[in-house]
Amino acid sequence: MIAILKQGTTPQQTQHLVNWLKNMNLDVHISEGAEVTVLGLIGDTSRVDMELLKSLEMVETVKRVSEPFKQANRKFHPKDTIVEVGHARIGGGYFAMIAGPCSVESEEQIIEVAQAVKEAGADILRGGAFKPRTSPYAFQGMKNEGIQLLLKAKEATGLPIVTEIMNISTLDLFADVDIIQVGARNMQNFDLLKELGKTKKPVLLKRGLANTLQELLMSAEYIMSEGNENVILCERGIRTFETYTRNTLDLSAVPVLHNLTHLPVVIDPSHATGKADLVAPMAFAATAAGADGIMVEVHNNPACALCDGAQSLTPPQFEELNRKVQQIREVIA
Ligand code: PEP
Ligand code: MN
Fold it and tell me: Which of 98, 102, 186, 270 for a ligand 1 pocket mutation test, highest count of atoms within 8 Å of Cβ?
């Protein structure tokens, strides 16, 4: 339930009302806009007398919202959230191109790719150090060493970095990481989400392979309800009966999420398609659909990549993709 307060309501009146609502065992999320203040009532609102609330002098309107996500809900927070990392901004009209290898493999590899994607116009460097692999026998990532190498690449290029966390016990290693990624497989690892919510670090939350958009938003809610509002949502394809592509990119997620939430929405066409030649067309479509960013895998030698070589672009392919994405952005602006 949300209560929109009348213009001119004083902070004392607002506080009085908030205390009254809290006495009903509700949590109250206050969103102060330039013109109006919106109160989001969190908890069991079934016993709140809507008519009584509406009748209060400072209350303009009261609405029941059926969605169970509150903090991520655009109704409570109409303005787009803009997540800022280094010189990059995502959301609210700002767009970020995130690029880099699936996994950090060596110092030479990550520095070379970082420099190439920076030169081609990337805003943020990606690279996995802790890798969630389907097989326990597959390359599991360079772990701590991988993070140290990403930090070197950050220092060499100035690009902010995003890398995946799999277990909260490793959180200390992420102190200088700019964006912590929660991968598709951990989207509903609620303990992990809650702990990340206690940090102020931006979190890139990827949609699970078989999760609905509402479930994605509820996972964002886990992070936000602990106090961290820096959440970026990422659609990376979902599992359907189609087998030609690695997953099926749900592009409608972009406008649907933009309607439902103020959080930025990024598309990952690499994991969505699994095929390098499909990455650019899907990145173009995602840009045209209004995505706030694109995340793509780029490798200096895809044929020898330790992970996801088939979907990795070469630096020149990435340069062309980025150039065209920027052109599309200008057309739709
Ligand atoms: C990744 O981005 O490195 C990754 C493993 O992606 P996902 O969690 O979407 O499979
Ligand atoms: Mn990958």
Answer: 102
